[in-house]
């Protein structure tokens, strides 16, 4: 079976032309960004859309990155609280 070629279209990496997207690389947050995100999480575990947009702009992140970070942090927090 021939090797599957990588194709780039519209900035998306695709495997073998079958339309399957490869995962984007993991976001590496700076210590300053993490400090601000953690500080905000201590104030509130949920952000409204305007708050998320403002925080993302301040930190130089996308709204999606901020949203995912908060989702992951809530999940970790709940897991820790469940363990006691």
TrEMBL record:
<dbReference type="InterPro" id="IPR017970">
    <property type="entry name" value="Homeobox_CS"/>
</dbReference>
<dbReference type="GO" id="GO:0005634">
    <property type="term" value="C:nucleus"/>
</dbReference>
<keyword id="KW-0217">Developmental protein</keyword>
<dbReference type="InterPro" id="IPR050460">
    <property type="entry name" value="Distal-less_Homeobox_TF"/>
</dbReference>
<dbReference type="InterPro" id="IPR020479">
    <property type="entry name" value="HD_metazoa"/>
</dbReference>
<comment type="similarity">
    <text>Belongs to the distal-less homeobox family.</text>
</comment>
<keyword id="KW-0238">DNA-binding</keyword>
<feature type="domain" description="Homeobox">
    <location>
        <begin position="20"/>
        <end position="80"/>
    </location>
</feature>
<dbReference type="GO" id="GO:0030154">
    <property type="term" value="P:cell differentiation"/>
</dbReference>
<dbReference type="GO" id="GO:0000978">
    <property type="term" value="F:RNA polymerase II cis-regulatory region sequence-specific DNA binding"/>
</dbReference>
<keyword id="KW-0371">Homeobox</keyword>
<dbReference type="InterPro" id="IPR001356">
    <property type="entry name" value="HD"/>
</dbReference>
<dbReference type="InterPro" id="IPR009057">
    <property type="entry name" value="Homeodomain-like_sf"/>
</dbReference>
<dbReference type="GO" id="GO:0000981">
    <property type="term" value="F:DNA-binding transcription factor activity, RNA polymerase II-specific"/>
</dbReference>
<protein>
    <submittedName>
        <fullName>BOX5 protein</fullName>
    </submittedName>
</protein>
<dbReference type="Pfam" id="PF00046">
    <property type="entry name" value="Homeodomain"/>
</dbReference>
<feature type="DNA-binding region" description="Homeobox">
    <location>
        <begin position="22"/>
        <end position="81"/>
    </location>
</feature>
<dbReference type="InterPro" id="IPR000047">
    <property type="entry name" value="HTH_motif"/>
</dbReference>
<keyword id="KW-0539">Nucleus</keyword>
